[in-house]
Amino acid sequence: MNESDNIRSDFWITDEDGNDFHLDLLGFADYEKKVYVLCAPASSNESGEGARAGTKKAPKVAIFNLTYVNEQPQFTPVADRELCEKIFGIYSDRVIEDQLKNT
Length: 103
Prior knowledge:
Number of helices: 1
Helix content: 10-25%
Strand content: 35-45%
Oligomer: single chain
Number of domains: 1
Largest sheet: 5 strands, antiparallel
Shape: globular
């Protein structure tokens, strides 16, 4: 296990309707020269924070296409189910491969 395995990355994202989602970063996947971000709903922290007014429950895994506009990251949700399955498969295969290397 390396030092980065202990880092927890979570963030808030707001959709076009103004709904807030608290997400944990699972990882990244490259597919067809695009970078995708895989996230899961963040669990509440020990102080009970983790929700704010107008927050909706996020799906179990959210996949976003990551692009940059004026050097700022833009997360565009991937709506195509087949593409989501392909990206999740790539990510899962890499995680399993990494786990096998570390055992």
